[in-house]
Amino acid sequence: MASKISKEVSAVQRGSGEKIGNALMQYSSFFFGVTFSFYFGWLYTCILFAILPVMAASGWVMNVSMEDGQTEKMKAYAQSAGYAEQAL
């Protein structure tokens, strides 16, 4: 039961708390970065758009690895909760 409660609380926190703030930060960073680069010259814009695919790919890789780590953590937590219930 403790494992299920922890999983549900974690799902609610991930669903509403972190993602809204992260999305707002990412969109504003992108918008202000593009605005800054267009304001200060075409060279900054070319550099920004050349690096953008690399940044997107690295963000995707980090997201996949974080999801895998979270899955493994929840499996280990569920297993240890089962052992604790058996012990009690």
Note poorly predicted spans: none
- Give the biggest sheet: none
* Series of H and E elements: HH
Report the mean per-residue pLDDT as an integer.
84
Shape: elongated
Number of helices: 2
Between the first and last Cα atoms, what is the distance in angstroms?
13 Å
Portion of residues in helices?
over 70%
User: Which structural class should the secondary elements be placed in?
Assistant: mainly alpha
Indicate the radius of gyration in whole angstroms. 20 Å
Q: How many domains, as an integer? A: 1
Strand content: under 5%
- Record field, number of beta strands: 0
Report on the architecture of this protein.
There is one protein chain. The protein is mostly helical and 88 residues long. It has one domain (2-87). Helix content is 97%, strand content 0%. The chain is built from two helices and no strands. The protein has helices spanning 2-40, 42-87. α1 (2-40) runs antiparallel to α2 (42-87). The radius of gyration is 20 Å and the shape is elongated. The two termini are 13 Å apart. The mean pLDDT is 84.
Topology record:
Blueprint: H1 2-40, H2 42-87
Core attributes:
mainly alpha; 2 helices; 97% helix
Gist?
By secondary structure, this protein is mostly helical.
